[in-house]
Amino acid sequence: MPKKSFDTIFMHLAADLAFRSHCVKAQVGAVLTKDTRIISIGYNGPPAGTHNCDEEWPEQGCERDARGSCSLALHAEQNAILYAVKNGAKLEGATLYVTLSPCLACARLIFSAGITAVFYLKSYAAYKGLAADEGVNFLNKFGVPTSQYNLLE
């Protein structure tokens, strides 16, 4: 039996982590790796110690901000990066696997953290009804390659 690639393994893990999300609108998972080793994981949801949206507001989720986004949630890639930094991990040269392409704010964080490649499953622009994937465009413009990953089960 052929061995699965690390890309496939890490993307499957990101997809599985999405099921941990407490968001009632979208579940997103992320895995940060370096040299075929996992540095950190994350999924979208409110900061630890606040509210779990699916428990507190199971029907509608948390309040929306002025742009219609969750008022409490951290994005999966933000959680993965923050946990890595909190624990002293070096992110320079890391690769990010995420189930939804990064928004522009996350793309700026990814770039600033020194992450050098991003693989994603689905388009944030398609999910939000936007004309373009601004985060993907930002990363590509500044030399961080992004690839939409075709996850074969």
From TrEMBL:
GO terms for biological process: pyrimidine nucleotide metabolic process. It comes from the Bacteria. Pfam families: dCMP_cyt_deam_1. Residues 5-134 form the CMP/dCMP-type deaminase domain. Keywords: Hydrolase, Metal-binding, Zinc. Its cofactor is Zn(2+). It comes from Mucilaginibacter arboris. Belongs to the cytidine and deoxycytidylate deaminase family. GO terms for cellular component: cytoplasm. The active site is at residue 77. The keyword Zinc applies. One of its GO terms (molecular function) is zinc ion binding. The keyword rRNA processing does not apply. This is Cytidine deaminase. Zn(2+) binds at residues 75, 103, 106.
